[in-house]
């Protein structure tokens, strides 16, 4: 009689064990489900860091009101796991674009988390009409020189919009004297912060102002995002380097005339219309009038990039 190979014997024994487990498994009654929920699924309170700061300005965590507000945003953003992972993945792709531009203008690096809080690092729009990574309203965007019309909307141009955000923040810092209040004014506007400062006789501290719910939570959400994205494994976010979204190499093509059809334009560079719009969401139509002869720079992915992903 020939002996069975060892791995066949192990598989046979494993199968018996599985069958035995299934045979004695309890039916999923309400009591069993409740017990499993208690024993197998756990939500933990999150320790608040001993020290936190925004742009080098300390957060007064010794204040019980401040601690509770910080706790709320850490809990909300930690346990919104799917969104957290998406933010981590997008940050790897877009922070390399945002960070050097903020540095160029002397804006603290922490302000990249303001963009995360505003748009989730997506070129989207809010119900109120704010648009792009930095969520500029039309009036504010135009005030700071962004072109916004039916053909071009530079709020959706990450580089140009980041520069305009930096200009706004420089002006806000000069007006309010602190980066924290400058960030708050990005949400409430200059007049919104000034009005509450005058009403409440508070000049120099965001944390001493009683503000509407959105602005009251705003800085704490930014702080929570900074803490989580800076320490993802500490907050239970596990991923591999290969899971992160990667920056895509592009080059710029200057256009200073009208473009009658961007689908035809795209084919000249061996890409399609969809890929052209992915890299240039600020182009809002499939043609460009450009009667003034303004210079635009259109991003084109390196030759063969998308084909090489197949």
What are its keywords?
310 residues, Lysozyme, two-stranded antiparallel ribbon, mainly alpha, flat
Specify the CATH class of the largest domain: Mainly Alpha
Helix content: 40-55%
Structural class computed from helices and strand pairing: mainly alpha
Can you list the strand order of the major beta sheet?
1-2
User: So what's the overall shape?
Assistant: flat
- CATH topology type of the largest domain: Lysozyme
> Helix and strand succession?
HHEEHHHHHHHEHHEH
Domain tally: 2
Average pLDDT score: 91
- Overall radius of gyration: 26 Å
End-to-end C-alpha gap: 52 Å
What can be said about the biggest beta sheet? Answer: 2 strands, antiparallel
Strand content: 5-15%
Q: What does this protein look like?
A:
By secondary structure, the protein is mainly α. The chain has two domains: 53-243, Lysozyme; 250-308. 51% of the residues lie in helices and 5% in strands. The protein is built from twelve helices and four strands; from the N terminus they run H-H-E-E-H-H-H-H-H-H-H-E-H-H-E-H. The strands form two sheets. A two-stranded antiparallel ribbon has the order 1-2. Helix 5 packs across helix 9 and helix 7 (158-176) packs across helix 8. The longest helix is centred in the first third of the chain and has 24 residues, at 81-104. The chain is flat. The model has no long low-confidence stretch (mean pLDDT 91).
């Amino acid at each position: 009689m020939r002996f069975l190979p060892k791995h066949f014997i192990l598989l046979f024994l494993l199968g018996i064990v599985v069958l035995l487990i299934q045979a004695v498994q309890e039916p999923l009654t309400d009591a069993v489900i409740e017990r499993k929920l208690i024993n197998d699924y756990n939500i933990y309170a999150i320790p608040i860091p001993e020290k936190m700061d925004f742009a080098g300005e300390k957060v007064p965590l010794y204040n019980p009101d401040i601690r509770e507000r910080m706790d709320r945003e850490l809990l909300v953003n930690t346990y919104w796991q799917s969104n957290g992972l998406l933010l981590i993945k997008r940050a790897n792709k877009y922070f390399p674009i945002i960070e050097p531009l903020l540095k160029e203008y002397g804006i603290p690096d922490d302000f990249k988390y303001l963009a995360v809080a505003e748009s989730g690092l997506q070129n989207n729009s809010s119900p109120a009409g704010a648009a792009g990574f930095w969520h500029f309203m039309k009036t504010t965007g135009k005030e700071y020189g962004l072109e916004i019309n039916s053909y071009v909307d530079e709020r959706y141009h990450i580089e140009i919009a980041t520069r305009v955000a930096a200009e706004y923040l420089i002006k806000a810092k000069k007006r309010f004297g602190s980066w924290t209040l400058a960030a708050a004014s990005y949400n409430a506007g200059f007049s919104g912060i000034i009005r509450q400062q005058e009403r409440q006789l508070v000049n120099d501290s965001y944390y001493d102002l009683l503000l509407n719910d959105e602005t009251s939570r705003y800085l704490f959400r930014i702080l929570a995002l900074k803490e989580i994205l800076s320490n993802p494994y500490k907050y239970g976010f596990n991923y591999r380097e290969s899971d992160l979204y990667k920056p895509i190499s592009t080059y710029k093509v200057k256009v200073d005339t009208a473009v009658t059809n961007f689908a035809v334009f795209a084919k000249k560079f061996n890409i399609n219309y969809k890929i052209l719009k992915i890299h240039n969401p600020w182009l809002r139509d499939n043609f460009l009038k450009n009667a003034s002869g303004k210079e635009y720079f259109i991003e084109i992915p390196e030759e063969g990039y998308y084909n090489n992903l197949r």
